[in-house]
Amino acid sequence: MSVKAGKIFRAYSGVLAESPRALIITFAVYFLLQTLIRLFLPTALRVDEAQQVLFQQWLALGYDAQPPLYNWYQQIFFALFGPGLLAIGAAKNLVLFLIFFFYVKTAELVLTDRRLVAVAAVLLFVIPQVFWQAQRDLTHTTMLMLSMTMLLYVTARLFRQPSTPGYLALGVCIGMALLSKYNSLIILPAILAAVASHPDGRARILDRRLLLSLAIALTLCVPHALWLFDNLALASEITLKRMAENAPEGRLSQVAFGFATFVGGALVIICVPVLLTGLSLVGLRSRIDTGVNRNWYRFFRTYFVAIALVMLLVISTLTLTEIRDRWLLPLFLPLPLFIALWLEQKHVSLARFVPRLVPVGLVTMLVIPVALIASQPVMAMLGLRTSSNYDWQGFAEKLRVEEKLAPSLIVTGDWRTGGNLRFLFRDTPVVTTTYDDFAPQIGLLPDRPILLVQITGRDKFPEMLEWLETNYGLRVKLPEIRWVDMPMSFPTEGNTLRFNYAVVRPSDLVATPGS
C-alpha cells in the first residue's frame, strides 16, 4: 500500500470511528457489492440456496426442521426478481445489512462514547461465521440474527422511553425470532433474565403493555405452531439426530461431552474478536472508571450467564452431544457489545485503541470479496472440490439438447439436487422425496416424461418410485438407469461428477385402482 493510500485508509478509519452514519453507509455499500458478486460466482446453488429455490414452488406454514420465516421472506424476492441469483443474493445481503444497521443503532443507545460503536460493529464483522459462513450459505441463522438484533434495539429503546409502539414492535421481534429458528427458545429466556437484571427491568416486565407484545407474538406464531404440532417428528427428528452424533456411553458422560462441545463451539465464535481486542490493547494502560453506568454491562453479563445455564439445561434434558458453532452464532451475537461495554468501564485510551482495531474491519471488507471470487478456482487448483463446482448447467444442457427431454416432472431424493434442477428447469415442477406436501398436477405424455435424478449413487431410485406411487397412485416399472460424468465447473484433474437419471414414460407406468 502506498503512503498516500495508507493515509487515506487511516483517515477513513477515523471517519468511521467518529460517525455511526458513515459506518452504516459503508456496510450498505459492502453488502450491495456482495449482491453483485453473487451474480458472477458459479451458478451451482449451495445447500441453503437450493432449498430456497425448491420451496419457491409452494407456500406453506412449515417445511422441515426449520421455521419458515426466511422461506416466506425469500418468496417476496422471487416474486419481484424471479427465482434467480439476483433474488437470492439481494435477499441474503439485505438481511446482513439490516443486522449491522440495527447493531449500530443499538450500540448508539447503550454506549457512551460513539467511537466504541465502530469497535462493536467491527468486532461483530470479524467473527468468521459472520464474514464467511453467513455471507455464503446461512439463511435461517441470519434471519434469527436479524430478529435478535432488532429485539435488542427495541429493548434498549423501551428502557430509554417506554411506549405503546415500542411494545408493539417488541411483540413483532419476538414473533420473528420464534419463526426464524427454534433455538430462539434458548435466547428469549436469557434476554428476559437480562432485562430483569436492569434497574428499570422490573417496571418494563410488569408494564401491562407487555401483554400486548405477547399477544402479537402469539398471533404471529400460532399458524406455524399448528403445523408444528402435526409435523413434530419431521421438524425435530433430523436436528436431534444430528445433535446426538458421536455420543459416548453413559448419560453423565453424554452431558459432559455435550457441554464441552458447546464450550468449544463458543470459543470458535469468540476467539477472533477477543484475540483482536487483546492485541489492540497491548501497551495500553487502563483503569476502572467508577463514573461509567454499568447497567448495560450487567445486562449483557447476565445474558451470557443465562445462556450458559439454559444450554446446560437443554443439553442435560435432550442429551445433545454435537453442537456446531453456526448454531451458536445467534446466541453470541451480543458479544461485541459486551466487549465494548467492558472497554468503556476500563477507561481504555480509545485515541490509541480505535486506530488499531477499526482498520482491521476495513481490511477484512476488502479481502472477503476477493476471497469469495477466488475460492473456487484456487480450491480446484489444489485438487479440491465443493458443491459449488458441480456443473448442473452442463447436465441440464445435455438433457435438453442431446436427448431432447422436456420433462413434465422431475423427482429427486434431496433438496440440493431438486433446487439446482428447479433453478435450471424453471417451467418444470421439481419434487423431492423429502417433502410430501408438494405434489403438483402433471400431464404425462410420451414427449413429456417424468425424470428421476440422483447424483450420489442409485440407492434412492426405489424411494423415488415409492414417492410416485404414494402421491400419484402410480406403480412404475423402473426403466434403465443412465448416467453421465460431467467435469467440474472449475476442472480438477481426474475429477468428475456422475449424474444418474432415469426417464419414465407412460409405457413404464401401471395405474393402481382409484388413481
Give your account of this protein's structure.
With about 525 residues, this protein is of the alpha/beta class. The chain is built from 21 helices and seven strands. It has helices spanning about 5-20, 20-40, 45-55, 70-80, 85-110, 115-125, 130-135, 140-160, 165-180, 185-195, 200-205, 210-230, 230-240, 250-280, 295-320, 325-330, 335-345, 350-380, 390-400, 415-425, 460-470; strands spanning about 410, 430, 450-455, 475, 480-490, 495-505, 510. Helix 2 (about 20-40) runs parallel beside helix 18.
Q: What amount of the residues lies in strands?
A: 5-15%
Q: What's the total helix number?
A: 21
Mean model confidence by pLDDT: 89
* Distance linking N and C termini: 71 Å
Radius of gyration: 26 Å
Helix fraction bin: 55-70%
Question: Sheet bearing the most strands, described?
Answer: 5 strands, mixed
Helix-strand category = alpha/beta
Sheet with most strands: strand arrangement:
2-1-3-6-5
Encode the helix/strand succession as letters.
HHHHHHHHHHHHHHHHHHHEHEEHEEEE
**Contiguous runs where pLDDT drops below 50 for at least 5 residues:** none
- Give the overall silhouette: globular
Secondary structure tally: strands = 7
What is the gist of this entry?
By secondary structure, this protein is an alpha/beta fold.
Layout of helices and strands:
Blueprint: H1 3-18, H2 20-40, H3 47-55, H4 69-81, H5 85-110, H6 115-125, H7 128-136, H8 140-160, H9 164-180, H10 184-197, H11 201-206, H12 209-230, H13 232-242, H14 251-281, H15 295-318, H16 325-328, H17 335-346, H18 350-381, H19 392-402, E1 409-412, H20 415-424, E2 430-432, E3 450-454, H21 461-472, E4 474-476, E5 482-492, E6 495-504, E7 509-511
Parallel strand pairs: 1-2, 1-3
Antiparallel strand pairs: 3-6, 4-7, 5-6
Helix pairs in contact: 1-2, 1-18, 2-5, 2-18, 3-20, 4-5, 5-6, 5-8, 6-17, 6-18, 8-9, 9-12, 10-15, 14-15, 14-18, 15-17
